Structures are given as structure tokens and as C-alpha cells.
Amino acid sequence: MAAAMRFGGGALLRRAPVAAARVRLAHTKPCSPEEMRDAAARVAEIDKAKEELFDKVHGMVTTYDVPRRMSREYMLLMQRLSSQINPRPQDPIWRFCRRHERRNTYYKFLGACTNGLLTGVGIGLLVFVPPKKSVADWWNKVTS
Question: Membrane-spanning residues where (predicted)?
Fold first, then answer.
């Protein structure tokens, strides 16, 4: 036992602490006012780029006759962007894309909940409910 501790335990003790060896992916120090202004400028630039991209994709899809597969990809992109740009209640394309984005999100959650519920019920039926004798008799008659 002592030999094992000397052999393996020493390697564990010489190891660097996990927290010190971990690379930090986020800033933990407070930002200076100059960094905050820079961050705000970048956020405004990103928001403007999203608006421009939504307008460009809308113009491309409605102006040019693109293949159906490409059109679908760009419509999905427009739907995603519609939830990230400033609301445009007077724009029918924005309303269409936003409505479909909300519907798709609802269906995703509905599908996940239904899948979980039916899986639980199915496993419960398989594990806890014994088969009925009449079904077993019917199956024996059919197979014999």
C-alpha cells in the first residue's frame, strides 16, 4: 500500500491544480468605459448587419428565380433573422417570417414533450403491465 502511494500518489500531488490550468473563455475583470463603448459600437454594427442581411436575402428570394432547395435555405435564414432584428409590423414579409419562426419553435417543443410523454408511457406499459391472457391465447391460435 505504501509503495502504491509513493508511486501513484506522488504523480497526483505534482499535478497542477485544475482551476489554474483551465483556459478562461470569458472575461472576469470589469470592463473599462472605453471597452464598453467599443462593445456597444460592435453590437450596433452587428444589429445593422442583421437588418441588411434580412433585406438582401428578401430581395434575392423575391427578385431571382432560385432553385427550390436554395430558396428554402434562405427562407429559413430569413425566419431566424426575423426574430433577431427590430420589429417591422408594417412589413408583410417580416410578419410572415416571424409567424413561421414562432410556429416552428412551438412545434419543436411540442414534439419534444410528446416524444418524452409517449416514451414514458410506452416503457411503463412494456415493463409494468403484463400481457392479457386473451391476447396471448389469440396469438397462440394464430401462430399454430
Answer: 105-129
d(CA 47, CA 42): 9
d(CA 38, CA 53): 22
23 occurs within a structural domain = no
User: Using CA atoms, how far apart are residues 38 and 32, in angstroms rounded to an integer?
Assistant: 10
Domains in the chain, number = 1
Q: What is the pLDDT of residues 39-89, one digit of tens each?
A: 899 999 999 999 999 999 988 888 888 787 777 888 888 889 988 888 888
- Which residue range(s) make up the domain with 81? 35-103
* Rg, the chain, Cα only: 30
Alpha helices in the chain (DSSP H): 2-4, 10-14, 18-21, 33-63, 68-82, 92-128, 133-143
pTM summary value: 0.58
